[in-house]
Each structure stands twice: as structure tokens, then as C-alpha cells.
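Narrative progress, year one. The postdoctoral researcher (J.K.) led the effort to move from monomer predictions toward full complexes, under supervision of the PI. The following entry was the first complex the group processed end to end, covering 294 residues in total.
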Amino acid sequence: MKKTPRRVLAIHPEHRGFGFVVMEGARMIVDWGTKTDRRNDGGCVLRKIEKLVGQYRPDVVLLKERSRSNNRRSARIQTLCERIEAVCCRLRVKIHRVPERKIEALFSPFGETKQDRALAVIYKLPELRRCFPRRPTAGSGEDDRMKVCDSAVLALTFYADVCERSSDKARQRST
Amino acid sequence: MPEPPLNNYLRRKRKENGFSQEEVAYLIASGDGAKISRYENFKQQPNLETGLGLAFLFRTPTRLMFMGVSAKVERRIIKRTKAMLRKLEKTEQDRATMHKMQFLRSLCSQLGQLRCQSG
């Protein structure tokens, strides 16, 4: 019998570092934060991810699904995601890619912008209220704390999907 | 088998309340921030006084704050309780022994672990 993953580590890599959350179920957040890659070579990111995986021993590591060709995600980040996958394979931890369409399906009722998504995340996980990112202004980059919200989005989508699948199975069994 | 709980959930509680490791160390009057970091990274276990202090500070039951350690201790005790029960079953069943066995059985059943072995 396939077991339901209990602890997940969601990672959202960006141009300088990554955001992460560790969750044990859809409502229990264990750790969260951002890590910065000062050298910008990816090696530092991989070491930090390895440390997180070693520390928390998650059942699954979550990343965003490989993008379609028209996606704006840079090639460097996509390569980094592949390297993260390789690290997780070496550490024998499962990888799950969360598709964008599932994220949209779950978070579209809250609004279209990333800020709206962040607000929805804070609503679902009030522990993250200190990570609410400031609204971007012209000329300023995205707030670093948005990375935490983005990774929480991955984790929440994953748990919602797992719940949906298990309730589907239960419904099938009952009919 | 599900992934065992983490040794402690100290980092979660600290971040949730917006404290730094130094501040927590100051509040519980135990070492410095580095020590709290070692607890959070599961490299060291706090002593009883520090553990109780942390649980009191974050208003969390000690058992929940140190869930992994607590589970480990419970498992060990249950294992030994069962062993002792088996041993007592083989000895003479006087009043004191019966009382001990009753206590051990209720302990095990309380923790939902015992498939009672007495015949």
C-alpha cells in the first residue's frame, strides 16, 4: 500500500537563492525561510538543500513543474532544479513536481496576483504572517519573503491534491 | 511506516513568535544563541531545566515540544514494560506481582500499544 507523504520540503529556487517550507500535513508548518546564494553558482544552494534534507528527512521534496517553452523561468533556474533533483535522487528522497495548473486551480479564487496568493497562504498558515511580502514598487525587485510564500503555495497545492485523490479513492470504494 | 516526528519543534515556535535564537537563550537563561541553534538542528538535547523552560516560554506541553524524543522514550518504555510483563507472568503470582502487572498493563493500554499477552 502506498503511504501518504507526511513531511514535505517545498523549494522555490530563484535567481539568488531559494525559499523553502517544511510541512507535516496541510496545517502544520515546521520550518520556513530563505537562503541566499551569494556566489550565484548554484553549488551553495545545493549544499544548503542537502543540509535541509538531511535535517528534516522529508518524504517528498516539492518543486514546481518543468515549464513549457514559453515560460519565463530562466534556463539557469531550470538547470538548478534538475541539479536539485539529482541531489535528491542521491539522497534517496522522492521528488514531486507541482504543476502550475493545479496551483492556479487552487489559488485562483483568491485572486490573480502573487500578492493575492501570498495573502491566501497567510490565511491558511498564519504562522507565516511575518513573511508577508511588501508590495513591489517600480524599480524595486520582488521581496525575498515572496519565495517563502511561493514554496508554501507548492506545499499547500500538493496536500490539496493528495486529499482530493484520497477522497476520490474513498468515493470509488463506496460506490 | 510514517516518518518519525522531529526531535523538537523549537524552531517552529521561535519563528512563529518572531524571536531570535539569542533572545530565546536570554529568556530561558541558558547559554547563548549557538546553543539554541544546536537544539534546533538536533545536534544536542537540552537538559531538563532548559527543556521545561522552552516549553513554558512557548506555552506548549513538553511532550508536544519534544515530540520525537518523547516518542522515542515511550517506545523504549513500552518495550521494557512488555518484557517485564512477560517476566512477571512466569513468576509466582502473589498480590504485589498482580498489582505490578495490573499497573503495567494499564500503562501499555493507555498508550494504545499493548496486545495483552496474558493468557
